Amino acid sequence: MKELSQIALAVEPSTTMAIDSMFKQMKAEGLNVIGFGAGEPDFPTPDYIKEAGIHAIKNNETKYTPAAGTIELRKAICQRLKEDCGVEYEHTQVAVSNGAKPCVYVALRALVNPGDEVILPAPYWVSYIELIRMVGGVPVVVNASEAEQFKITPEKLAAAITPKTKCMILNNPSNPTGMMYSREELQALANICVEKDIYVISDEIYYRLVYDNKEFVSLPSLGEEIKERTLLINGVSKSYAMTGWRIGYVAANPKIAKVIANFLSHSTGSPCTISQKASSVALSASQDSIEAMRVAFEERRNYMVERMNQIEGVSCIKPEGAFYVMMNIEKLIGKEMFGTVIRDADDFGNLFLKYGKVAVVPGTGFAAPNFVRWSYATSMENIKEGLDRLEKFLAGQAV
Ligand SMILES: Cc1ncc(COP(=O)(O)O)c(C=O)c1O
Q1: Which terminal Cβ of the chain has fewer Cβ within 10 Å, N or C?
Q2: Taking the model in full, what pTM does it have?
Q3: How far away, in angstroms, is 103 Cα from ligand 1 center?
Q4: Range from 17-31, 55-69, 176-190 carrying the lowest mean pLDDT
Q5: How far is the CA of 185 from the centre of ligand 1 (A)?
């Protein structure tokens, strides 16, 4: 048979999914394992949102919609962006698709020609690097250390830009680090993007999960010139505990929005009608239940960070948003545990799962080989038990 597509063959499986499937297998075997790999809220979708979906089905709202989404949903998105982010779009500038992930893909598709460079700050969400490659782009990884709060500096950004640079992907607040750029930091990056005329795919999917009363700043709100160059990604998955409903969106200047709508019309077609209806309600109704989830995440983060920093051998900085903590395991590299020398986060992750019965995500896939990611999108009970197990494991006791 003939060879498959080289681009498709080069796509690596998601490392976050790999650990998750190992964890699920151990669970299915009846082992008492705890998972901290989840990239989704553990809360159920709020009832009023579920009701809206049920109502849509009963009301026969079950047919195709425009490929870029219903006008009702796109207007609800514009209203929410105006209220929450201080940024104004017409509904024609918004394209809805099946989650934020395909929106990142289609945004890259709209911008990138084969060989174009795409700047990617690291540690990065695993899917970005593969998505860049899937459109024939060349990832240019810019590393940000823990000492830099995992945030790239304007100097590093400027140094990475070449005549081939088409865009940057910025994830704020970040998966996997949970860190968030301040207004000043973001403005400094925006100035460079405008000056060098590069686009920014700004993935702001965690924008409502921000702690310590910190201000979230949406990139396109910083001025017309950066807004023109921004492809804003967001969705309902994380903020409304709606990961399975598969609704995300991209907002951009009219020319880009049209290209994206055309692309979607021939590829995915319209997003799920029922999910669109439920998402309109999620975005338009009172946001109180969303706030309750945010408060719960903040309590869990506080506990996890405090406990982790009391445990000998590991440490973490305090994330400002999302629901992830990056645990620093530098001190464990080169040490022997349970008969194995730990070379990197993969070794640590495998050993911790086998002997500690805890699943975390090795930072190797995020370009952070001395870190592992803990998600606190799980119960406080699990978090306490997980950290107890970490203590035992590091003391050389198997669970
Ligand atoms: C940074 C980031 N962007 C996008 C997504 C995907 O969102 P969705 O489930 O809406 O496709 C995720 C999910 O983990 C994420 O962490």
Answers
A1: N
A2: 0.96
A3: 10
A4: 17-31
A5: 23
Residue bearing the CA closest to ligand 1, atom 1: 175
Q: Which residues line ligand 1 (CB under 6 A)?
A: 39, 99-101, 125, 171, 175, 203, 205, 235, 237, 243, 248
The mean pLDDT of the chain is: 96
More confident: 320 or 21: 320
Q: Give the pair of three-digit tokens for residue 190.
A: 């925006």
Domains and CATH numbers, the chain: 6-44+289-394 (3.90.1150.10), 61-285 (3.40.640.10)
Mutate to test the pocket of ligand 1, among 45, 101, 131 (most ligand atoms within 8 A of CB): 101
Burial 93-111 (b: 16+ CB within 10 A, else e): bbbbbbbbbbbbbbbbbbb
- Mean pLDDT of the region 70-76: 98
